[in-house]
Amino acid sequence: MGLSIRAYAAHRGVSHTSVRKAIASGRVTLEPDGSIDPVKTDRSWVQNADPSKARAPRILKPVPEAAVSAVRETLSESGSPLVGGMSYLHAKTAEKVLTVQLLREKLRREKGEVVERDYAIEQGFAFARRIRDSWTGWPARVAALMAADLVVDVHKLEALLNTHVREQLKASAGDDLNLRGT
Fold it and tell me: CB 139: neighbour CB atoms within 10 A?
């Protein structure tokens, strides 16, 4: 007693429709009792198979090291460091962790808890520009009052204050405060 069509299909890893088509085309022969002898049919299946319709064996592409590193880093950040080899479950877990992180950031943005970087830099520069303009105008505003108190030439005092204020602003605008490069 052999296998039924469905049982042979399961044994072969194909659909029962494929087995029926093979029987109809004569590639597979049934036993007198209508069953299928798996050993004999496996041989004839391979011998009579149309090579143009054969599926190519699945060749798995190697996973780039950057992707593996990203999964490892994500799992470490979430408190589940990768132990041993990489698995599909690890990659799926990392994907879920990243999805949650992205959703959390989106929610924080929508709540107004996060400011866009470009906007923050723009506002910082606008503030610094207002401070600079205020300081560069200061000598002209106070020079006459100071000159009257000190009994000195107004123009010389204003020029001196301008020089010192500009030197101070130049020193304050050093590379450590330059945000454009970051």
Answer: 19
36 phi and psi, to 5 degrees? -120, 125
**Sign of the four-CA dihedral 176, 179, 180, 182:** positive
| Six token digits for residue 160 | 């001196």
CB 72 within 8 A of CB 65: no
3-state secondary structure of 36: strand
Q: What is the mean pLDDT of each run of 10 residues along the chain (182 residues)?
A: 88 89 87 89 82 70 78 81 74 85 90 89 94 94 94 95 93 63 44
Q: What's the gap between Cα 116 and its chain centre?
A: 18
Evaluate whether 2 touches 31 at the Cβ level (below 8 Å): yes
Q: Structure tokens of 106?
A: 């989106």
